[in-house]
Amino acid sequence: MPGRRDRSTSGAARRGGAIGASGQDVVRLITDYLKQETVGPLRGAARFVAFGVAGSLALSGGAVLLLIALLRLLQGETGGAFGGDRSWLPYLITSVAAIVVLALSVWRVVSGAGRRRGSVPSAQNKEH
């Protein structure tokens, strides 16, 4: 009975096709989920980093301009106080100001908001 055989194989083929379609649906569902859970957060992180880099460049550029302004102010507006043998003092004062600004920046980064919230482990927590 060739008719019966064709029906049974076509039924098996249909079931295999349904299983294959379900398998493809599962694979598509998994890939969509992975994209949602990885690509989305990565885009958010990239945006966060981009704004952070732009902000740090703007702040550092502003700090450099302010330090140059301080140097020019000390050289030009102090009369003869820094003339002759003391012409190096404006450079020293500006260098000290730059080191103070740098030290304040590092201090704020190290003991920033993350440490107060407890998201940054302290030295005591590392020992236990």
Count of beta strands: 0
Low-confidence residue ranges? 4-13
Q: The biggest beta sheet, please? A: none
Mean pLDDT: 82
- Taken together, the total number of domains comes to 1
Helix content: over 70%
Write down the secondary-structure element order.
HHHH
- The chain-level structural class is mainly alpha
Which shape, going by the Cα principal axes?
rod-shaped
Rg (C-alpha, Å): 34 Å
Strand content: under 5%
Distance between the termini: 79 Å
In DSSP terms (H or I, runs of 4 or more residues), the helix count works out at 4
Short description:
The chain has 128 residues and is mostly helical. The protein has four helices and no strands.
Layout of strands and helices, then pairs:
Blueprint lengths: L1 H75 L12 H22 L2 H5 L5 H5 L1
Structural features, described:
With 128 residues, the protein is an all-alpha fold. The protein has four helices and no strands. The longest helix is centred in the first third of the chain and has 75 residues. The chain starts with a helix and ends with a helix. It has one domain.
